Amino acid sequence: xxxxxxxxxxxxxxxxxxxxxxxxxxxxxxxxxxxxxxxxxxxxxxxxxxxxxxxxxxxxxxxxxxxxxxxxxxxxxxxxxxxxxxxxxxxxxxxxxxxxxxxxxxxxxxxxxxxxxxxxxxxxxxxxxxxxxxxxxxxxxxxxxxxxxxxxxxxxxxxxxxxxxxxxxxxxxxxxxxxxxxxxxxxxxxxxxxxxxxxxxxxxxxxxxxxxxxxxxxxxxxxxxxxxxxxxxxxxxxxxxxxxxxxxxxxxxxxxxxxxxxxxxxxxxxxxxxxxxxxxxxxxxxxxxxxxxxxxxxxxxxxxxxxxxxxxxxxxxxxxxxxxxxxxxxxxxxxxxxxxxxxxxxxxxxxxxxxxxxxxxxxxxxxxxxxxxxxxxxxxxxxxxxxxxxxxxxxxxxxxxxxxxxxxxxxxxxxxxxxxxxxx
Length: 424
What we know:
Elements: H1 2-11, E1 18-22, H2 26-43, E2 49-54, H3 69-82, E3 90-97, H4 107-124, E4 128-131, H5 147-164, E5 173-176, H6 198-214, H7 218-221, E6 224-228, E7 234-235, E8 240-241, H8 249-255, E9 261-264, H9 272-280, E10 283-288, H10 290-310, H11 319-329, H12 342-351, H13 364-378, H14 384-390, H15 392-399, H16 407-423
Parallel strand pairs: 1-2, 1-10, 2-3, 3-4, 4-5, 5-6, 6-9, 9-10
Antiparallel strand pairs: 7-8
Helix pairs in contact: 2-16, 4-5, 5-6, 10-13, 10-16, 11-13, 14-15
């Protein structure tokens, strides 16, 4: 199992890691598989790809993507086949699997739904499981959730996962840890974040291990490969906090003697050097998601600007306007993230690093507009001068015959340019 190899390599002192692509966006998944295939061909190695879905993206009720775990598996299998990439080289993971989606319900109701979701993930073939029960549920005492309660709930879900394992699939590998950044980025501008203290990591490991043992999950505990901590990286609407190795030095030293590595969330928008340093310091699993959909948004907006120059007004997709209209009609996914004047909020809806647009691409109006945009540009060759204006990096690749002068190629390459930072 490749995840086990990463842990063993780190314990030998090798800076080995893996990128966790945490997105269910179709174009992101296409780009990830396409990029993995290209890397395999160039390096003449068998590239391993880790794709993860979060509980709010994908669950038994469809999540905001409309997909169940089995839907994701079928979709990824199709993409792998299209790209001639071995499906067995793809590890599927579930992120933040727990009662997060049902926080407004009492414990028993929320946990039962979380157990069903866990079962569906395992039976669909998902292997890497992040147990996250850090959130308060209806009826919980006010204040921070006690670690013992969070660990007990996580162990309950792990027990259900073990019982749901299907013969022929890999046994689940678990990620623990409740000190996770806010999924999708911070809500407020931050000048710094609190790096997790070593004593808190140690306590989390000990308390969670005890909870596993109480449930008779000793063998499952041996498959806990990582713990989520805060290494000091974060991003939000208009800021990025870059990794500072010296601030996480104690964390890095502590994990050397543990049979697991760290998983770093919110590594979006980190520099290539920062990502290398994270892996060197045993933050071996690097999660990225919004930066990839941000790149997708950049690309489709650039294509829409090219469309404005090439297509008559009556036949344009008007994609940016359609997206904003839908976001205004359904503000629940961006309101608590974007603040300020109406003008500032309008800017953030389009250009924020938090990329709350990613929650809206499945909307039928937006899908129709996007399809019209792509159809308009597929019907004609884009002038190189426009490609140079809106896709300067991809323009050079077209000139050197690395990619085609086609909207699909421009889109895919824009997304994979983010993944390249994680590959080197």
